[in-house]
Predict the 3D structure of the following.
Amino acid sequence: MSGKVRRWCGRLPGRRACVSPSAEGGLVEVRTAEIPDVKIIETRRYFDQRGFFSETYNKRALMQAGIELDFVQDSHSLSVEKGVVRGLHYQIPPFAQDKLVRVVRGAVFDVAVDLRRRSPTFGRHVSVVLSAEKWNQLLVPKGFAHGFSTLEPNTEVIYKVTNYYSPENDRGLFWNSPELQVEWPVSQGEAILSDKDKRLPRFSELRDFFD
């Protein structure tokens, strides 16, 4: 983008807003979540009368923040209903994955659970609301199970991952395991899950952890 960056006021989806974009560009901030290896990434958007432009991934900027990852695949999900739960999913070595998750439409309650047995935060979780309005992202490292519940209908989520899908190494954890104490925004009776996710083991039944 070039030219002078000006203050802009206009309609965004569902609201009116005025924004003053910075000319610096790039990632705004990389913050550490309650579990240190999980990162919350804020990105900047440039608005004008046409809409907006945003740099959603910059390898060099992440390296400057101490994050060096080689992403090999992007995945895109659409959840039509509010209250859809996807997860909690992970892959075991040698196909373990780091994930960079963002919402391009709607909003989710996003959860990452530490499955590293030697970690001081083993069994604990991080939860954050990701939304198209906030334009934030969550970096979920290897050793964590990940999932989300949609807060709006027609929510779209994009994931970048550092390893390819492997059915033989695919694992999961039941989303509402009582041991996790996750305060989900949807009840177990109202949640919409796949048949596969309904059958996932509870945390107390899980056998595949990370060393």
User: Anything to note?
Assistant: The two ends are 46 Å apart (CA to CA). The helical segments are 59-64, 195-198.
